[in-house]
Amino acid sequence: MRTPDQTxxxxxxxxxxxxxxPREKLTPxxxxxxxxxxxxxxxxxxxxxxxxxxxIELPDYELQGVSDFRTLASRIQSRL
Amino acid sequence: MSSDGISNFEGDxxxxxxxxxxxxxxxxxxxxxxxxxxxxxxxxxxxDSLERAAGAHALIMYSTLKAGFSAGADLRALYEGMQKLxxxxxxxxxxxxxERIHRVLNAIDIAPLTTIAAxxxxxxxxxxxxxxxxxxxxxxxxxxFAFPELRLGLIPGFGGIPRLKRxxxxxxxxxxxxxxxxFNATKAQSAGLVSQLAAEGEALRIARATASQLxxxxxxxxxxxxxxxxxxxxxxxRREIDIFCELFTRPAVATGLRKFVESTDAQxxxx
Lengths: 80, 271
Description:
The structure holds two protein chains of two kinds.
Chain A: H1 4-18, H2 32-35, H3 40-54, H4 69-77
Helix pairs in contact in A: 1-4
Chain B: E1 9-10, E2 14-19, E3 22-27, H1 37-50, E4 58-63, E5 68-70, H2 75-84, H3 87-110, E6 114-119, E7 122-124, H4 126-132, E8 136-140, E9 144-146, H5 160-167, H6 170-179, E10 182-184, H7 185-191, E11 196-198, H8 203-214, H9 219-229, H10 234-248, H11 251-262
Parallel strand pairs in B: 3-4, 4-6, 5-7, 6-8, 7-9, 8-11
Antiparallel strand pairs in B: 1-2, 2-3, 9-10
């Protein structure tokens, strides 16, 4: 079972790889829309990659109002 | 015009060509293949051409755009039309639009050839309804499927619910419809919506390989099998138009459409 810190770390690694951003520039409390410079369609891409990586189903309504990696990680953690 | 009676076409929203018995219909209206009056006109032209495509055994529809197969109805056009017209006239025009698109989608649904939607990215609302008329959906693993219409105070209007109900169990239909959430391709396949999964960027190649396989079978047998397994739910489709139009004049719809059209935040496609 992953710890919350491991989950957020894996999310940051995945986001850095997919959106080609140096990992060290991403922190758990970043607004991922701003840091990754993505819109909602790209956020859905990120959601799909997260679902594939963690082997979970995360309904997109659970992302409503979520914009930082740490909160996103907590939503994922509750489905692991 | 080709010997099979269907001319190749290059339009603003759609292009199609016939090659080796397979019609390839490409969607390419920026930014995300929103289905509005312009695309409908070209879909009608395509539907008319399809009647002359006796030599084709398969149809593949796909998008050339990075965003995905289609984000659905052109909500901006819908909202702008609503603003310019009286409520009664807006409903009359909306019903006319829906009846036209139902005619086109019913014609593709029942077409005497095997139809494949090769989808990727967003396949939402009217885009999902377009894919649902096809016999097979082959999905890139990054595809997502949703009926977000309830967020706007509406139901899907291009035949989505009756066709989804025809193809899937009611529990899945209710989940997609009533929560407005999106399914990824893996979930969509496990639910029975998607027939084959493709690696990223490979859906069209796999659709072409599938179309090539279909050519091996006797055409009349394929048509008979399709007619047997895929009845068109005409009565429910007509009822869908009525319900859509009943809902359309409610203030919640104008509010929902305005919120979407005027949105400057980064999340208009999230519920």
